[in-house]
Amino acid sequence: MPFARLASATTPTCHIGLGLAAVGRPGYINLGRDRDLGPDRGVDALRTRTHELLDAAYAQGVRYVDAARSYGRSEEFLADWLKARPEIDDIVVGSKWGYTYTADWTTDAEHHEVKDHGVATYERQRAETAALLGDRLDLYQIHSVTPDSPALTDKELHARLAEAAGRGITIGFSTSGPAQADAIRAALAVTVDGEPLFRTVQSTYNALETSAAPALAEAHDAGLTVIVKEGMANGRLAEPHAPQELRAVAAETSHGCDAVALALILRQPWTGVVLSGAATVHQLASNLHAAVVDLDDDQLTRLAALAEEPRAYWDKRGSLPWH
Fold first, then answer.
1. How far is CA 200 from CA 22, 96, 171, 307, in A?
2. CB-based contacts of 33: which residues, under 8 Å, 6+ apart?
3. Average pLDDT for residues 40-58, to the nearest whole number?
4. Contact at 8 Å (CB) between 201 and 184?
5. CA-CA distance, 158 to 156, in Å (whole number)?
6. Which terminal residue of the chain, N or C, has fewer Cβ atoms less than 10 Å from its own Cβ?
């Protein structure tokens, strides 16, 4: 499995991946995005920014990169970067299907992405991903599975995904929403010919949203690699929006709020990879300090008190504007 390359790595930052959601398209829901990206959101500007982030991440030991069909041109930007650096062969590349990007490179679209987990969408998006990433794709995940997702019960889809697995692609799923734990447990029960279909799970987990933790531990125990997304709660755990207690712990460690927030996730015994959603090289460097942040029991207890009720957390997330 491709994640064995990360599991055997000795560089701590190998367990931090780079997610391209924030830089693959001009609009996203991260707080502070206007400040981070500035006014130039053209294709060339974001391609250049993505390549700068990928260069910096690789130089500092990051070996997992996360894209998606709905992240604008993230797959295209990543494919261009890989083609220009044929000597790099130790990157693990993941992408996702199930959402179609519909904003047409604008920030004020009525709908930025449309969700569909049907076989036809899978076949179309799988071909689109293959055209860009070819045999560099290691992991293909269903994007944002919920407990009622047809992707959990569609036997034809399962057969198509199993065919892809037979050709060497690792198959996984991501989750969103207040019922992530239910979705994870339902996905763990999906089998094809008696064998588990999914080998990875990518879920939201952070200091404010911890409800998926027991199910993620179960997934880890079942042999899945756990990838954590939205560790910064879409900017709510970064300065200047971070809760006061997080700021206090960060001051005690002499690191940024972002590094402390990500370090909290790295401490979980079930964590395989934690994604940085950095939009700037400076943010990335600060995020990577998470690998060396040491938190004591008192600090962990204080941070644990930040957790919100899941539905309240997801209601707040749903109200964030697309910048």
1. 22, 12, 7, 25
2. 22, 235, 279, 323
3. 97
4. yes
5. 5
6. N
Write down the pTM of the prediction. Answer: 0.96
At residue 67, the pLDDT reads 98
Could you tell me which residues come within 8 angstroms of residue 281 by beta carbon, excluding any fewer than 6 positions away? 52, 53, 56
Q: Which residue has the tokens 């402390």?
A: 260
Which of 175, 176, 173, 167 minimizes the C-alpha distance to 140?
A: 173
**Separation CA 173–CA 46 (nearest Å):** 27
Per-residue confidence (pLDDT) for residue 131, from 0 to 100: 98
Q: What one-character DSSP code corresponds to residue 39?
A: S
pLDDT at 34: 86
What structural domains does the chain harbor? 14-310 (3.20.20.100)
The packing angle between helices 244-253 and 297-304, to 10°, is 160
Enter the tokens of residue 228.
Answer: 């954590």
Residue ranges in the chain assigned as alpha helix (H): 4-7, 33-37, 43-59, 74-83, 119-133, 155-166, 180-188, 213-221, 244-253, 257-266, 281-288, 297-304, 310-318
- Residues 6 or more apart whose Cβ sits within 8 Å of residue 230: 204, 205, 206, 209, 275, 277
The single-letter DSSP state of residue 84 is: T
- Say how far apart CA 255 and CA 298 lie, in whole Å: 17
- Distant-in-sequence, close-in-space partners of 69: CB < 8 Å, separation ≥ 6: 75, 95, 96, 97, 98, 99, 100, 101, 125, 128, 129, 143
